[in-house]
Specification:
The complex is a heterodimer of chains A (121) and B (285). By secondary structure, chain A is mainly alpha-helical. Chain A contains five helices and three strands. Chain B is an alpha/beta fold and 285 residues long. Chain B is globular and about 65 Å long. Classes of the chains: A mainly alpha (121), B alpha/beta (285). The interface between A and B is medium-sized, with 20 and 25 residues.
Amino acid sequence: MKHSLDDSKPIYLQIKEQLEDAIVEKRLQTGDRVPSTNEFASFYKINPATAAKGINELVQEDILFKRRGVGMFVKEDARQKLVANRKKTFYENYILPLKNEAEILDISEEELFHMLKGENL
Amino acid sequence: MRIEVKNLTKQYKGKRALNNITFTLEGPKIYGLLGRNGAGKTTFMDILSGHILATSGEIQINGENPFDNRKLTESICLIQEGNNFKKELRVGQVLRMYAYFYPKWDYELAEELRELYHLKQNTKVKHLSKGMESALGIIVGLASNAPITIFDEPYIGLDAAARKTFYDILLEQYEQEKRIIIFSTHLIDEVSLLFEEVLIMQDGEVILKEETDHLRRHACAVSGYNKEVKTFIADKEIIKTRTLGQMMTAYVYGDSEEAKQQGLHVEGVPIQDLMIYLTEGERGA
């Protein structure tokens, strides 16, 4: 959890990503209640409509579900879905930048391979 | 509530304060009304509150004109930078007067805030410090529960902690009683997270009206070698460019993913910076 949000990125996305992180890292598990729109709004001092947008997208994506009058909860299989999505972007988000930086620093593929295996040369 | 602004123009002697502006505001929503001094913000808020008449064009609130309209003025509360209240009145009298005027007045909240901001019932307005007078304005604005509540730089003389208290309560109240709140301020960094939508005014015109999250997503700062940046921004809407040696940063409306794919460095632009870049224009202007 972050103590404040970044004004230069869409706020609803930051709320959404925060919840996704919590589910992927198992801090929120199937059936757990997630903070409400108003709880997010008063914690971060953000517009409640903006907080609601982030949460509602997760409902549409079948990650959260709503129990009328009670709140929002983590759906079964939510974590598997999120993990599957993240694996798809793992290459792009982590491997590509790694390879780019290695190239700039003249680190050979072999060296890189050793580092990945935890051997610092 | 629906506020329709149609071809609104206000001409003062020798100066056009509002130049044929047209837009619609729909609530409940918290709007940020931004712009530099003299952009026309205060004139617009004065006409919206029914205090002054437009030269031409009109504002309709749920289909009615606000000027001299008792029923509508009960639905609008405008708190300005100062001189909101008669100097000879006491704090208690001011609060009773407004309680009488606004049908949805929240007595409990007014009392709670009066104590929070250490205002005494018997103090005359003329004996209040600047900050305390601002606090009184804030109390009236929040407790009014007016369906259209307008704050125009309401916190002159209030320190950072007192302003933060104001934002906290504003948000709490908004959650309880959803309404249209129009908030005009120069301290954009402090409040931009509260805005669902912003309007930026310049030289009597509305140059931008957009959801804040939409702006955060589409306004970006793109940096790289001059040539590469120039190629990328060729077909984009450019807000501003800056160069440092062979490097260049361009502030544009564009797709940040597309810029990243072209190997450019991309950052978001905070709302305050965006406002400044959009309105700074020619130096000295």
